Amino acid sequence: MGRAPCCSKVGLHRGPWTPREDTLLTKYIQSHGEGHWRSMPKKAGLLRCGKSCRLRWMNYLRPNIKRGNISPDEDDLIIRLHSLLGNRWSLIAGRLPGRTDNEIKNYWNTHLSKKLRSQGTNPNTHKKLSEDPAQGLKRKNNNKSNGRKQKSKSTTTTANPDHHRRRHHQPEKPKVHLPKPTRVTSFSMRRNESFEHCNTSNVENNIINPWCEFKDGENGAAGFLVGGGGGDDHQDHDHGIVNGSDFDCQSDHIIPTGDNTLEKLYEEYLELLKTEESQVELDAFAESLLI
DNA sequence: AATGATCTCAACCGCGAGCAG
DNA sequence: GCTGCTCGCGGTTGAGATCAT
User: Which of A109, A89, A32 is nearest to A234 (CA)?
Assistant: First the structure.
């Protein structure tokens, strides 16, 4: 890719993972747990850098990762969360059990930003393009494909027309405070502690409603809402948030994306927007994510 | 069927934060 | 407080897949 490697990788494999490498990594982690990424490849017999191992595990090999088939509800939630959080993919992924931030980021860049654009909404600001001085042209962080000639087929934009119509009947959203991106860590965990030491407590506690946690303002707010997403580097275990892997087999009944849970989440979000103090509350909400 | 254009997404990168010494 | 190491995040890349002509 043209850039110098971040560390010495002489003799290391790069590019797509082979089934054998996947097996080696999976078996190693199953018997030794996560963590120690730097030394892991050597111990596992892999000619990969630690970063690559971690990425592969977090995004593809972990149990309970959902692949593809992003539902309209998830679609909707991603857009809503993006309007609130911006490009904080790990936080957004933390709200979508089983999804990784890399997947959501890709999905946003390849599908959702186009969809919003085709609907006359600036995907960066979530304002109507006609009302947005930027007109969706000022961009740096946007999908590079935006600069490309778009195909006339707009299949990716119309998976569920009714669904999107509903969204755009929403009242005009006030400006949402988007805090500067920052690393989010809600509580410390010793680096060499395996996640098994802390993740189970969340499942046992069965924290389900993140908005209650948010309103609560106690540890749970940071602990849960700070969704160190699934992501290519998801850090749920650090934050004690609940996501797909933490849900384990319970995820389907805790946050089934097909039922009205997502709607409930958004309804509560809308309630915030309706109030006069919504800006203050949203600021507080956004900041709570960064605690 | 061939070819070029465009899209998708797995994987890579640099940066910055947290932690230990 | 400083330094070095490790990890996590978000942006970017490019090979392969898909589409249009």
Answer: A89
Of chain A, the percentage scoring pLDDT greater than 90 comes to 3
Q: What share of chain A is helix, strand, coil (3-state, %, to 5)?
A: 50, 0, 50
Neighbours of A91 (CB within 10 A): 27
All structural domains of chain A with their residue ranges:
19-61, 72-89+98-167, 196-288
Residue nearest to nucleotide B8 (CA to C1'): A110
β-strand partners of A121: A128
Q: Which residues of A173-185 are buried (b: 16+ CB within 10 A; e: fewer)?
A: beebebeeeeebe
pLDDT digits (tens, 9 = 90+) for A82-110: 888 888 888 888 888 888 889 998 898 88
* Residues A244 and A228: beta-carbon distance below 8 Å: no
| Protein CA at A145 to nucleotide C1' at B5, angstroms | 12
Taking C1' of B5 and every protein CA, the nearest residue is A149
Contact between the CB of A139 and strand C at under 7 Å: no
Protein residue minimizing CA–C1' distance to C14: A1
Whole-number CA gyration radius for chain A: 20
Give the CA A267 to C1' C6 distance in Å: 40
A241-268: per-residue pLDDT in tens? 333 333 333 333 333 344 455 555 556 5
User: Which amino acid, A190?
Assistant: R
Nearest nucleotide, CA A52 to C1': B11
> Are A87 and A181 spatial neighbours (Cβ–Cβ below 8 Å)?
yes
Q: Classify residue A30 as exposed, middle or buried by CB count within 10 Å of its CB (0-12, 13-18, 19+).
A: exposed
CA atoms within 13 A on the CB side of A124: 14
